[in-house]
Design a protein that fits this description.
The chain is mainly alpha-helical. The chain has helices at residues 3-16, 38-43, 55-68, 72-78, 80-93, 95-108, 127-166, 171-182; strands at residues 22-23, 31-33, 36-37.
Length: 184
């Protein structure tokens, strides 16, 4: 495995921590270990007690579901910080949603299609999204990376606040989500 991808996954597991495989109050994800919810673990074929979810199994779930599956590995090969942000946002808010945020930003930053063609906002990081991101980074350079990260974080923050607004029980989690995911 590429070290960049391994480092991204290790960073997320480190932020998430062990979690003990227990359900936290008001956490809709239920029992969680290494940042992997019970539902996600079951979908990935793990059927044991969440308290016993091996770190290596969690790592594999991250790699398949949140890195390779949505195409964020290709983004990370092009730009590690943006790739890492997409993986992290995908873990927190869903990979399709994270991909849509990237696509929305690329559409909005293309100067009415004069810098690169508009792309579909379909939640799939395919060739068009990849080429648009390449063009964006070539055109905007290091400042573009910082601006893209800020825009992605802004969209994620808005989404997380809307979750708490729609379900008051999620206010318990909101501060932690923002401090660990958006304000990083």
């Amino acid at each position: 495995m590429d070290k960049r991808i391994a480092d991204i996954i290790e960073g997320i597991i480190g932020r998430e921590g062990d979690g003990g495989g227990i359900a936290q109050r008001d956490d809709r994800g239920g029992a969680t270990r290494w940042g992997i919810t019970e539902m996600t673990a079951r979908d990935a074929g793990y059927h044991g007690d969440m308290k016993g979810l091996p770190r290596s199994v969690a790592f594999g779930i991250y790699e398949r579901r949140y890195v390779n599956g949505p195409g964020f590995d290709r983004v990370a090969y092009l730009n590690v910080p943006i790739g890492a942000e997409l993986v992290d946002a995908g873990v927190m808010s869903g990979p399709k949603r994270a991909a849509e945020w990237l696509q929305r930003c690329l559409r909005a930053f293309n100067n009415q299609g004069t810098l690169w063609p508009d792309i579909a906002v379909d939640g799939v990081v395919g060739p068009s999204t990849y080429v648009a991101l390449q063009s964006f980074l070539k055109h905007r350079g290091a400042d573009g990376e910082r601006t893209m990260l800020a825009a992605l974080n802004a969209l994620q923050g808005d989404f997380l606040i809307s979750l708490a607004e729609e379900d008051a029980s999620q206010e318990t989690n909101l501060y932690g989500w923002i401090s660990k995911r958006v304000a990083q």
